[in-house]
Amino acid sequence: QSPALSVKNIATFFGIPLTEENLQLVLERSSFQSMKKNSDKTHGSFGNILFRKGGVSDWKNIFSEDQNEKMDKAFEEQIAGTKLGKKLKYDLYCKA
């Protein structure tokens, strides 16, 4: 939710000094627009699949109802009760 804070925390964790200039460069290069623009170089033929629109909930246009139900079940069984499951906001972004 806060890319700048996340980058700073990662740099601190790894003991990497981070100037304001470097921070801005990382934020620019890790933006969705930048990753999409360079996806053919970084991800080859999968780039167009991985970096499509940059929004949430587009899965509704791709998943069938059966696939959606399987995903909901797998999430509930394997991730929902974990710290990660609580942070993912699955009910908000992934439930139909």
Automatic annotation (TrEMBL):
Recorded GO MF terms: sulfotransferase activity
Record-listed E.C. numbers: 2.8.2.-
Enzyme class: transferase
Domain Sulfotransferase: 3-82
UniProt-listed InterPro entries: P-loop_NTPase, Sulfotransferase_dom
Pfam families: Sulfotransfer_1 (PF00685)
PANTHER family the record matches: SULFOTRANSFERASE SULT
Family classification: Belongs to the sulfotransferase 1 family.
Protein name from the UniProt record: Sulfotransferase
